[in-house]
Amino acid sequence: MISLVRMSRRSKRNQTSRKSSSRSPKLGVWILRLALALLVLLAVGSVGGYMWLRKYLSSNEFRDVIVLKSQETLRAETALSPLRWDGFHVTTDSFDAAGVASAKEIRVEGIKTGIVPSAVTRGVWSVVPSRVAKIKAVWDLTATPTTGGVGDSTTAPSAIDASASDRPWFDRWIPKKVETDRLIIDHSDVQVITAEGEATVKGTRWEIEPMESLSQSKIRGTGGDIQLPFSWAPPMRLEQMPLIYQSGSLFLNDSDFRIYESGHLSLGGEANLEQKSYAIEGSMRDVLCSDVLPPDWRQRLSGKVEASFSMKSSSTGPIVNGEVQILQGTLTALPVLDKLAAYSQSLRFRTLSLHEARADFTWSGDIITLK
């Protein structure tokens, strides 16, 4: 009797195990089918999202967004040539801006850039490292800012700034922020109009690397010719000029220039672009006396000139204070020396050697004061 009960219990357990094992394969199949369905949906969604993003980037709406943002930034009327997309990389022939404020003229040629598509899911346009073949600009720092101009808060809203009810259904998924990467400008011709005159930068190559945004950037310029708007400033050949731009201010660190035939100029300082003020310190070396003296003194004084100075802006123009010295100098052909030579009957008195001569000076306007 006991053996029959044990056999009955064993048969029940076997039947239960067979039922559970028969259900587990069906459950596993359904889980596998669901996973495959999700993968298919994700793949279709990715392809659909990719195609939609490609279509949107090639649309006039996206091009209008670029134009509007450039207008708001530059406060100028802008124009952009057609965009040519290759995947998520784009090229365009030119970008033009005609200003109603400081930016009188800007023309950018040979633009190459692109975006990182995966960043769209984070709600940002992430721009890949970009390159510009040439930029030409005229900037007028003496212009009075106008109200109600392009990009001003009083400007009438454009079609892109329509109310939420007039926007397309997909507008909520369009990124509103921009992340920028390094920008290289191979050639630049820039003219800056100041109260003292015109300053020019020709042929300089620039590398711009945003730190957090374009409002905080590291800038490096190499090559090219620079002419300052001061009559006493010589043409300068740029070797390197590292800058930091931060919220309307420029900080200059250890920049090097070639001046005259063999001279070197080093500059450092800062400038506030909004207040139009600056404070610069510099040094000059290996400059020949004949490079800086007026014609009637070039045959009378030879040697090398070195100087250290500081220059600050003022309401009447720059004020320069510093120290100048002449090394290995020689004075000759002076009337007093000729008289000494005639009186002593010795030609050696016709020249006077200056091993070292120095003086402090102040330069303001056209007046130089030696101290």
Task: Report on this structure.
The protein contains five helices and 21 strands. By secondary structure, the chain is α+β, with helices and mostly antiparallel strands. Strands 6-8-11-12-14-13-10-9 form an eight-stranded mixed barrel. The N and C termini lie far apart (131 Å).
How is the topology of this model organized?
Elements: H1 2-57, H2 60-74, E1 76-80, E2 84-86, E3 89-99, E4 103-114, E5 124-126, E6 130-140, E7 177-179, E8 183-185, E9 188-194, E10 197-202, E11 205-213, E12 216-222, E13 225-227, E14 236-246, E15 249-259, E16 263-272, E17 277-288, H3 289-292, H4 295-298, E18 301-312, E19 319-332, H5 335-344, E20 351-364, E21 367-370
Parallel strand pairs: 5-7, 6-8, 6-9
Antiparallel strand pairs: 1-3, 2-3, 3-4, 4-6, 8-11, 9-10, 10-13, 11-12, 12-14, 13-14, 14-15, 15-16, 16-17, 17-18, 18-19, 19-20, 20-21
From the structure above, extract its key features.
371 residues, 21 strands, alpha+beta, disordered N terminus, two-stranded parallel sheet
